[in-house]
TrEMBL record:
Residues holding NAD(+): 180-187, 266
Record protein name field: Dihydrolipoamide dehydrogenase
Alphabetized GO MF terms: flavin adenine dinucleotide binding; NAD(P)H dehydrogenase (quinone) activity; oxidoreductase activity, acting on a sulfur group of donors, NAD(P) as acceptor
Matches recorded under InterPro entries: FAD/NAD-bd_sf, FAD/NAD-binding_dom, FAD/NAD-linked_Rdtase_dimer_sf, Pyr_nuc-diS_OxRdtase, Pyr_nucl-diS_OxRdtase_dimer, Pyr_OxRdtase_I_AS
Domain FAD/NAD(P)-binding: 10-320
Length: 474
């Protein structure tokens, strides 16, 4: 070990993505001696190749679409003049504006020791990063995930894009083939179509298979209306390059042809090269195996974020960070729970979910549920803004306990938060029904959905009988 530097810490965090940064920032500010190790870019996938650039691109696409739809408001219509190089500058400018919050300088200022090297466990209590040995009371592995590349014949001989490269395109694709109809695939398909590319989206099952089927259908119709060719329930037999084009042969013998290929077929945990076996940490096909307290088989090592094999959302990684800090620093037996976990697909319209979908609720509770819904077509604000597609839906048990909510429509990601708050606080449906919602707002739709729980009783035979009786009594 001659020439190696040695550090002793209370907490060593491997990975400076969403989960790792949140853990390191919290621990350092609470007085823990904290080491943060990152071999690549600070901010991880979310800042550099995920949430931030994708939402910046979607914002540009939405602006282009607003120009196309301006005549509906009596404003002169014209085709948007899309400068794709300027769009790219907007995307990377957004990353640059947010980057200081995730920077090495900020974390050093917070009191972290930051090491920009690849980390590897040598034993259950020691990590080697470059030329530095780190021994810590607790470790957190937060190395994130990367795009999964399917075993598709011919793909290894083709140039293809993933979320890690698609935002670096210097020119707009002529025709983008998107493999994968999950949230990333749907968002990118719509964004590039609205920015002027031809787009074909291919999905083995239906698009957005983890979401409510009726809500996913609203998104599908919107994609088609924008001009995206959506091919569902079809497999891909092989991929090949013909001249400058990429050709996919599908299981139904169709052969879509494109200039670019984007693979958006899921994610894979980053577990390679970490020496996890030497540390006594078990790895599964999904990622690092953890318990509800995010502890690995080695109780001194935690895993957080995408690498822990659960839902892959930045806000879920943030929740993981809070659980890890309370367990690792304060030894509190806090557990993760997905019961009130929300997620959003940022297409237009957005699709948001918290808790159980209708199908999941029926599987778990049978016929003992109430399904309540309201359409944005009946919401005056949505009508005024010409965004009346979609609906809000809630599922409760017979006593009015909220089991889940689905919203597909304008600003669904904002509107779902009221339902998440109600569920987290253990509030019943009557609380949302009793809210005085300002008029006209999109948020009125949640009050309308909640009020539907009482409609059969309020306007039923017993109420009418009581009203007539009281009328006769004067």
């Amino acid at each position: 070990m001659t020439g190696r530097k040695e550090l002793t810490a209370d907490l060593c965090v491997i990975g400076a993505g969403s989960a790792g940064l949140s853990v390191a920032a919290g621990a350092a500010q609470m007085g823990a001696r904290t080491v943060l190790i990152e071999a690549h870019r600070m901010g991880g996938d979310c800042l550099n190749t995920g949430c931030v650039p994708s939402k910046a691109l979607l914002a540009a696409a939405k602006a282009a679409q607003a120009v196309r739809g301006a005549d509906g408001f009596g404003v002169g219509r014209q085709a948007p003049d899309i400068d794709f190089a300027a769009v790219r500058r907007h995307v990377h400018g957004t990353i640059a504006a947010i980057a200081p919050h995730d920077s090495e300088d900020r974390f050093r200022a917070l009191g972290c020791t930051v090491i920009r090297e690849r980390a590897r466990f040598l034993d259950p209590s020691t990590v080697l990063a470059g030329n530095t040995l780190v021994r810590a009371r607790r470790f957190v592995v937060a190395t994130g995930s990367r795009a999964a590349v399917p075993d598709l014949p011919g793909l290894d001989r083709l140039p293809f894009l993933t979320n890690e490269t698609v935002f670096d395109l210097a020119e707009r694709p002529r025709h983008l083939l998107v493999v994968g109809g999950g949230p990333i695939g749907c968002e990118m398909a719509q964004a590039f179509r609205r920015l002027g590319a031809e787009v074909t989206l291919i999905q083995r099952h239906r698009i957005l298979p983890k979401d409510d089927a009726d809500a996913a259908e609203v998104v599908r119709r919107s994609l088609v209306a924008d001009g995206v060719t959506v091919l569902e329930n079809v497999g891909i037999e092989r991929a090949e390059q013909v001249g400058t084009d990429i050709v996919l042969t599908l299981s139904d013998e169709r052969r879509p042809i494109g200039s670019h290929l984007l693979i958006a077929a899921g994610r894979r945990a980053n577990v390679e090269g970490l020496g996890l076996e030497e540390a006594g940490v078990r790895v599964t096909a999904k990622g690092i195996a953890v318990d509800k307290r995010l502890r690995t088989d080695n109780r001194h090592i935690f895993a957080a974020g995408d690498v822990a094999g659960g839902p892959q959302f930045t806000h879920w990684a943030g929740h993981h960070a809070g659980v890890v800090i309370r367990n690792a620093l304060f030894r509190l037996p806090i557990r993760v729970s997905e019961r009130t976990l929300p997620w959003v697909t940022y297409t237009d319209p957005e699709l948001a979910q918290v808790g159980l979908t209708e199908a999941q609720a029926r599987d778990r509770h049978g016929d003992g549920i109430h399904v309540l819904s309201a359409a944005f077509a009946d919401n005056d604000r949505a009508r005024a803004e010409r965004h009346a597609e979609g609906f809000a839906k809630a599922v409760t048990d017979r006593r009015g306990r909220i089991l889940g909510a689905t919203i597909v429509g304008p600003q669904a990601g904002e509107l779902i938060q009221a339902w998440g708050l109600a569920m987290a606080g253990g509030l019943k449906i009557g609380t949302l029904a009793g809210v005085i919602a300002p008029y006209p707002t999109l948020g009125e739709i949640s009050k309308r959905v909640a009020g539907g729980f009482y409609t059969p009783t309020l306007y039923g035979p017993r109420t009418r009988w009581l009203v007539r009786l009281l009328a006769r009594l004067g």
